[in-house]
Known about the structure:
The protein is mostly beta strands. The chain has a single domain (7-235), classed as Clam (outer membrane lipoprotein receptor (LolB), chain A), CATH 2.50.20. The protein has helices at residues 7-18, 49-54, 130-137, 143-150, and strands at residues 42-44, 62-72, 75-86, 90-96, 102-109, 113-117, 122-126, 162-168, 171-178, 184-196, 199-209, 214-225, 242-245. Strands 1-8-9-10-11-12-2-3-4-5-6-7-13 form a 13-stranded mixed sheet. The longest helix is centred in the first third of the chain and has 12 residues, at 7-18. It is globular.
Amino acid sequence: MKNIIPILILFAILASCASNKTDLKPTEDTTVVVVVPNTPVQRTDPESDANARIRSSISENVMMKARISIDFPQMKNSVSATIEMARMDSVLLTISGPFGISVGKLYANRDEFVMNNSLQSISFTGSPTDTTIMKAAQLPLSFDDIVTLLRTALPNKRANGSGMSDISDGKLLGYKRMDEEENIVMDATFGNHIVVFGLTFAKHIVLDFPLLGGKVTLDMSDIVVGGKLSSPMRIVPPKSYRVIKY
């Protein structure tokens, strides 16, 4: 079977190749932290009213910085990213290595995803379904998964498989996705919640993929709601890049 390197791992490899210096220091967090009292955990159906409250951020533009740590059998490394989300319509991740060296960009909307690898002049494109992104990145995430989980919201109900969520005091604490055989495909946990302009975000997100033997950890900072996004957000493969379509 062809060994496909997950896109985030590829970014981490390229980031480490960009410099042999130590990693960037974590970004200083300028977000105001609001402490919310804990209440007993409730196990809820993904379509319940409690989950609808968690979706309250989907109508707002959101920007944030993230430290993304990758822990897969292939390697362990981390990259820095700036994340921009235009409501639920599109998302742009700008990935950097040490000293702010550009590694690449990943853009997705409901019709397509495009990843430009700046250091190797390669672009990956395709439909933003979990099946296609699994082929391209070896991560079972769809566009809907990306934009909802980054916002500490629940993905939409799927036609196949099932989901289970943990919610406490209006905060999403965990979400598990199972396939049709009840195998856990993704186990997402959310911690260190904060409130920004009335919207709740998790500053620490862990996406565990048991069937792949790896996980991705995101530590968020500088969360901005309603800020000005890049214009245009959409990226295209440069003419000089080799394009791989999925």
